[in-house]
Amino acid sequence: MHQEIWNRCLLIFKDNLEWDKYKTFFEPIMPVSVKQNVLTIQVPTLFYYEYMEEHYIDLLKKTIRRVLGQDARLEYRIAVNKESTTLPGSSGQLSNPATRMFPDKLPNPYYAPGIPGKTIQINPQLKPEYSFDNFVEGECNRMAGSAGLTIANDPGKTAFNPFFIFGEPGLGKTHLAQAIGIKVKEQMPGKTVLYVDATKFRTQYVDAQLKNQINDFLHFYQYIDVLIIDDVQYFEGQTKTQQTFFDIFNHLHQRNRQLILTSDRPPVDLQGLINERLLSRFKWGLSAELKEPDYATRLEILKRRAYRDGIRLPEEVLEYVAKNIADNVRELEGALNGLMFQATQSKKDITLETARATIERLVKHSRPEISISYILHEVADYNRLNEHDILSSTRKREIVQARQIAMYLSKQFTKNSLKSIGNQLGNKDHATVLHACRTVNNLMETDRLVKGQVDALAGRLRQLC
Description:
globular, five-stranded parallel beta sheet, Rossmann fold, alpha/beta, GMP Synthetase, Chain A, domain 3, 20 helices, 9 strands, four-stranded mixed beta sheet, 4 domains, Helicase, Ruva Protein, domain 3
């Protein structure tokens, strides 16, 4: 029975995943039992379980519900002995099961009861692995890391409030932000720390509105000693959410509570996304950029991660990965995960040849997302213009045309809405973006210079796809 149900699940996984991901992550799983809509599966290691939870939880949830019903649950059992034949590379002896529930809606933290003057227990939503012990410092992040430690030792009392961390995705912004929170909790257990991403904050706010519980929402967030908001660029276009966060920000800052914010761009580039009053608050403290890690930093990251997970890899393999994955930490760890799963499946040591094959596959399938800010940079560079001029309200012909081309390319190469494109390119409305796209289309049919410019820029962008 359980094998039949799991086979039905596998058919769904196969339809929704690339073949190599399906084969690597789902084929090694073994169904154990099914009782009262609880499907138990066995995975090879604790690391395997954590990886599935982090990367495939939504797919697992939807699939289990589809096959077993809306009240379905998934239970993991983690094998602990490599000698058994029950599962290749694992044991028939099972650990205590780790159960995953699939509630329709996660509880909102602001419903926690709180009485002024009394302590309430709040889950800080911090991941232990994102500690300073696991934060590898290099030229790319030294200033930000040093500032983070200073804040952790005296939250809310330094000049670094708010602490605004920015950089491209995968460079460690979330890690550093959470490391500060973890350090605060270690040194000052009485402090109330909370990490929440901007999207979840927005969802909580909307939910509070619908339930007439805005006061509860505000009181909860005003209680926090160290508030970490991740990816504030996702406050884009949310006028009421921004106003509410502005009020919370002011309340906390005036009482010397620490605010830590992260974004994929510096405050100055949030112009048009964030209202001016809130944006001015972001600039009060310290803004620190995280850059792409250099080779030495990448190698140290791999060594520490391998040591933490108990993996023994030859030095030449680590060096090869560090040299060939240069964009960000997330891709480095993804490459290491790939090697680990390869070793789990083949039950062989990882060699340089194995590493080469894995890295080549990762690079081949990698599809970086092109951002509007990157397109703006390329258009400005091509026309030898300043990005801030393109975002300004000037009506100079060459600047207007550059702005229109940036809008046209943003519509072609990103998934952003017309409203979002307009907000990020000079705070224009969706009608202006639509007009710009039509204008560029018409000019490409009649003006060879414009067509040449658009084709050249599009060619650059396609190289990233």
